[in-house]
Predict the 3D structure of the following.
Amino acid sequence: MKHTNVALFVPHEGCPHQCSFCNQKSISGSTKKLTEKDIDEAAATALKSDAQGREIAFFGGSFTAIEREYMISLLKTAAKYIDNKSFAGIRISTRPDAVDSEICEILKKYHVTAVELGAQSMDDEVLRLNNRGHRARDVVKASNLLKSFGFELGLQMMTGLYGSDDSESIRTAKEIIKLSPDTVRIYPTVVLKGTELERLYERGVYSPQTTEQAVKICSVLLEMFHEADIPVIRLGLHSGGDVMSGYVAGAFHPSLGELCKGEIYLRKARAAIKEANIAKGKILLYVMPQAISQMTGQNKRNIETLKSEGYDCKVKPCDSLEEYTVLAKAAHI
């Protein structure tokens, strides 16, 4: 049975700032104010599917910063599905500076189980340049508070922000790892119509990451979080909503996560070949069965890259190997 979340968007509700990169209509495909009826209809649709472990998820905007009575009305409507055990819990996303003890008490009362914070960066200057309106210390404070209340903590970060570079992204990832979140999402910056980033891009002040550049740094971050045993549950904007109609520039690819995993496997293969001291020629590369396509690479890009370096590779499954582990052996194929 599959795990299914009901994703409900609260676009721009509660946001006290207009972040440089944000256009919630493009991200979510919606500008309509969420109602209690919308929640009931979405829940009813989800309950028709054969799924377990469902959660009701409020995304977009800043959930805990919206008008209090409205926020509680949404939570009350969702909470009844937790009470009758139709859903396992409620997940919300919000700003780091919109979390305090009172908010945590309310969220607990209405069965919220997971809170995701849009950290985006742990560099105060990058946060300032992108009009985030909070500082890195707010992320630390909110994260620790949420964990003390027993919430599952999710943190979101972005790469390629205005004023950022790869070294800043790595520093941000290190600071996030120190906070020991339960999950992480990584979003390479995409320039959307109607944003401050679009204006900076048109003036030549801001240069967005290409997909190739995003894959390079995000693969490094993905491996960092893997080594820290922190699951990355999303890499790149979802291809749904209205992203493509609002897209101007930047690293948007529907299979970005797979490209990043493939990049890790390419690095691991090169290291395994070097460690095995194999001369150029025919090679067998062993990976866990689920990683065959990732080692091969999209459109066989990894196999072709290694071939250009003098290695004629064939990928084989090995049940005893773990994720991101590659074993290389010389062979006659």
Observations:
- The chain has a mean pLDDT of 92.
- The chain is about 40% helix and 25% strand.
- Residues 264-330 form one domain.
- The first strand starts at residue 2 and ends at 9.
